[in-house]
Amino acid sequence: xxxxxxxxxGQSVESYDTTSRLDSDYYAVFADIPADDRAAWDRAKAxxxxxxxxxxxxxxxxxxxxxxxxxxxxxxxVVDGIEHPSLTRLSPLAAGLVNMEISRGDGSLGxxxxxxxxxxxxxxxxxxxxxxxxxxLTGMADGSVFGSFALTEPxxxxxxxxxxxxxxxxxxxxxxxxxxxxxxxxxxxGVTFVWARVDDESxxxxxxxxxxxxxxxxxxxxxxxxxxxxSLRAIHQxxxxxxxxxxxxxxxxxxxxxxxxxxxxxxxxxxxVAWSALGHATACYEAALAYATQRVQFxxxxxxxxMVQERLTHMLEDLTAMQLYCRRLADLETAGExxxxxxxLAKFHNxxxxxxxxSLARDLLGGNGILLENGVMQHMADIEAIHTYEGTESVQAxxxxxxxxxxxxxx
Length: 411
Hints:
- By secondary structure, this protein is an alpha+beta fold.
- The protein folds into 3 domains: 35-142, Orthogonal Bundle (Butyryl-Coa Dehydrogenase, subunit A, domain 1), CATH 1.10.540; 147-258, Beta Barrel (Butyryl-CoA Dehydrogenase, subunit A, domain 2); 260-405, Up-down Bundle (Butyryl-CoA Dehydrogenase, subunit A, domain 3).
- It is 49% helix and 14% strand.
- The protein has 10 helices and 9 strands.
- The strands form 2 sheets. Strands 1, 2, 3, 4, 5, 6 and 7 form a 7-stranded mixed beta sheet that branches. The chain has a two-stranded antiparallel sheet with strand order 8-9.
- A hairpin with a 2-residue loop joins strand 2 and strand 3.
- Helix 1 (35-61) runs parallel beside helix 3 (92-105), helix 3 packs across helix 6 (259-294) and helix 6 (259-294) packs parallel to helix 8.
- The termini are far apart.
- 46% of the residues are buried.
C-alpha cells in the first residue's frame, strides 16, 4: 500500500454518509401502504435519487435548476392528490408520501411541489374555465409550463384577506395594478394566478376578491427574484409588480369569486406542509443516527454515549408523532372527514417538532453539522420557511383556539 493510500494522522475518515435513507418507521406507520400508493412513493424516491445530488450545490449558489423542477412534472409527481379527469389521481396518502420524500431530499424541490401542484395547479383545476383548463392544465401537470400563486403582498402576509392589488375593467380588458411578494415561480416564465380586488363601483362584484390568470410575458408584469435568502435557496421566489397589466376579460377564473376560494386552496395545501415537515425531520434524524454510529470520539462511536442515545430518543419521539399525525390526516381526508383546523393542528405540531429535531441533529453533529454535505444545516434553514408559510404558528394557534373555544381572538 502506498503512503498516499494511508490515512493521515488525525484524519481516519474523510467524510460521513449522512444522507442515505434509513427508512425510519418505529411504529410501522407506513407498513401497510397499498401498492398504488407505494408505487407513487417509489417514483418520488427515484426522482430524488436522480436530481438530488445537484441540489445541495444549487442551494449553496442560490440557483434554481428549472430542468429539475420540470423533471418532477415529467415523472407525474406534481398532481398533489387533485381530483380532475385530466390528472393522475393520487390518494391523500400517496400525495403525502410524495411530498414527504421530495422534502426529505431537498426543501426547495418540496416548495416547487407545493407551488406548482398544491397551489397553482389546484387553483386552475378547482376554479378555471374549461377553456383555461384545456389550454394550461396538462402543461402545468407535466412540468412544461410553470405556475405560480400570487396572494401574499409586501404589506399583507398573515392578513392576506386585506390584499390591496386591484383589478378594474376597461372595455374588453381587466387592468391589474399592485404588488405581490414571496411568489414561488413568479419570475420563472409560465403563468401566475393573481388574487386581486375588483375596483369597479358600478359592478355588483366591486370589492370582491377574484383570481386572474396572467401570462408572465404580459407587458407591465415585472417579476424579480428575491435575493439574499437564507432558506429555500434553490427555488426563486419573486417580488412582482403589476404596472397596469392588461389581460382579456376571460382571464378571470369563473369559479373563484371571493377570498374564501383562495382559503380553500390554502386549506388543501396545509396538510402538505405537515408532510413536508416530516420529510425534513426524517432527513435530520437519519443524518444524526448515521453520524452517531460512524463518528468515533474518546475511542468509541458517539452512539455508545448515554447523552447521544437520549437525544436520539427525543428525536425519535417527535418523528414518530409526526408520522402518526400525517397518517391520520390522510385517513381523514380519504374518508372525506378532514376539517381545516385538523390540518392546522398537524401543520402547527409538525413544523415545531421538525425545528426541535433539526436543532438536536445539528448539535449532535458538532462542527460537521454546519456543512451542507451532511444535510442537516440545509434542512434546518429550510424548515424555517415552511414553519412560516401557509399560515404562521401564531395564525394556526388562533384558528385552533377559535375552533376549540368558540371565541375568536382575531383582531
